[in-house]
Amino acid sequence: MFSPGMLVRGVIECAARVFWVLGVPGDSPEQVLARAYLEELLSAEEAKKAAGRMGGKETGIYKQQLKAYTDMRAEIVGRFGGATKEDVGKGLLCGQTRPKPHEAVIDMYALLEKTGVSTVTSEASKGMYDYLSNVTHPTLYPTRQLTQWVTHPDDPNEVVAQLSLEVSSVEREVVVAMQAYFHVISYVTSFYGWGTEVFDKLQAEWKKVLPGTFR
Asked: What pTM did the predictor assign?
């Protein structure tokens, strides 16, 4: 019932992290590098944590992941003057702060709104992300919004819950995910200065399938 919403949230979060790492015009290479390092360290930390919880801290895989994490942290501290293990472990480096998932999403839509390419505003993205998070966690209200109480076909004195899900609702979620994916590909292409031939073909196909969706 809710798998589209979960997937949409995942796509949006991944796109938002890319936007955060690449930053905005005017950011220094040092700032971009710091954000990239913070993402790498978070990945290493999560891998270490998962290995320890699943297999225990005496396993070879945990020790391997622990070494990868400590090596990465040492590399960061050695690369950036003034950086400390404590600050880096908290997601702080070179004046950059690694955002929480919802913060990155809101910042992404604020940037897209500022450039005029998104149909989703920064303010609207807050409510949209709240809804997708409640689908994922989950809480009860999204489920109740998809159901209606109707009279039981075999007993007029009894009512039953009936799923009420329209194709248009799923289409809206798909559009949100496609927009985020579209914009992040455009941003990465621009950031690296790549040719746009392949992207232009993809954009043309998307506009055929979802007319009026992309700016």
From this structure: 0.85
Please give the structure tokens belonging to residue 178: 């496609």
Domain borders along the chain are: 3-209
Q: Are strands 155-163 and 92-93 parallel, antiparallel or unpaired?
A: unpaired
**Mean predicted confidence (pLDDT) in 180-193:** 92
DSSP at 80: S
- Backbone torsion region of residue 72, taken as left when φ is above 0, otherwise alpha when ψ lies between -120 and 50, otherwise beta: alpha
How many angstroms separate the CA atoms of 191 and 168, rounded? 34
Is-contact 23 32, C-beta < 8 A? Answer: yes
Under the banding of pLDDT at 50, 70 and 90, the label for residue 50 is very high
Residue 186: which of 174, 203, 206 has the closest Cα?
203
Distances (CA, A) of 50 to 7, 54, 57, 65, 205: 22, 6, 10, 9, 40
Cα 134 to chain centroid, rounded: 15
